[in-house]
Every structure is written in C-alpha cells, then in structure tokens.
Write a structure and sequence with these properties.
With about 170 residues, the chain is mostly helical. The chain has one domain: Hypothetical protein af1432 (Orthogonal Bundle). About 65% of the residues lie in helices and about 0% in strands.
Length: about 170
C-alpha cells in the first residue's frame, strides 16, 4: 500500500461516524493533523495525528485499535509515527491519572471508552509509560485527539498531507 492508497483509505472514511462524537472519522483525523501543524509539530507527529485511528480504518477486529494501527503503521512509517499512535490510548489513561483537570474535560464518549480501555493507570503502568521514549509525543498526540471533535470545522484536503507522509515513510 502506497501513500496515495493510505490517503484514499482515510478519504473513504468520510462519512463513518466517530464513536459517538459529532464528527466523522475523516473530520477527526484531519482536525488532529491540523492541530499538530498549528502547534508546530514535526512531520512525524503530524503524520501520527493524521493516522492515529488507522486501526479503525483497516478493521482491527478484536485487537485494540491503537495496537492494530501501530502495527500496521510500523510496516509503512518510521517509529516516530507508529509509536505515538500505539501509545495514544495509554496517554489518555496517563493524563487522566496525573491531571484531574484533563479527566474532567473529556467528552462523554471519551469517558466511556476510557473505562473499556483500562481506566486510570496504577503506579507501575504510569512508570512504564513514562519510561517509553515516545511517551511525550503520545501525550501531545492525545491532546490533539481530544480537541479534534469540532463539528463542521474547516480542514485541509487529505492529499495536502501526502508530502509529509512521504517524508516519514519507510
């Protein structure tokens, strides 16, 4: 699968609902990528923001979407793309554990999914997450993920990210 195929996969998710949120999966992905660009993220994190829910697009089945997406992306992109994606759910659990204000700002759908995803981290899980060299990138990605739920927000065409995706591909 080449970059054009990946963009078409994202584009094909145009109308797919995003887990109880008021945006589609496509809108969510494009908003997250735009937030990363606005925040001055490097190409790897912009790509991670754009592709963070790829596990849903490829049909993750019984495998958690972050794991399926991380595995799939690792075959196509550098670890600086795949690993923050793999960790973005753990980052939500981490932020809820260390920052009560963060937890209180989650959408209803995100609160419900957090319980399914394991809830708050225990001390060992927290330490293990903090030791991962990609944990700070995953936290940044998570914050964009949480903010990328604005109905009818203006976003770029996914093809505009093609050059970035090429730069961080394997």
């Amino acid at each position: 699968m080449n970059i054009q195929d990946i963009i078409e996969l994202l584009d094909s998710r145009a109308g797919a609902s995003y887990l109880g949120e008021a945006v589609t999966q496509r809108e969510h992905a494009l908003q997250a990528a735009q937030l990363a660009v606005t925040d001055g993220a490097d190409d790897s994190l912009v790509a991670a923001a754009l592709l963070h829910d790829a596990g849903y697009w490829i049909g993750c089945g019984d495998i958690p979407h972050e794991q399926a997406g991380g595995d799939w992306l690792a075959q196509r992109f550098v670890p600086e793309v795949s690993e923050p994606v793999r960790l973005h759910v753990a980052a939500k659990r981490y932020l809820c554990t260390v920052d009560p204000a963060y937890a209180s700002g989650l959408s209803r759908a995100s609160v419900l999914s957090m319980e399914i995803q394991g809830g708050f981290m225990n001390a060992d899980e927290r330490r293990l997450f903090e030791w991962n060299r990609f944990h700070q990138d995953a936290v940044r990605l998570r914050r964009w993920d949480d903010r990328a739920k604005v109905p009818d927000a203006a976003v770029k065409d996914p093809r505009e990210y093609g050059v970035i995706l090429h730069r961080v591909s394997r």
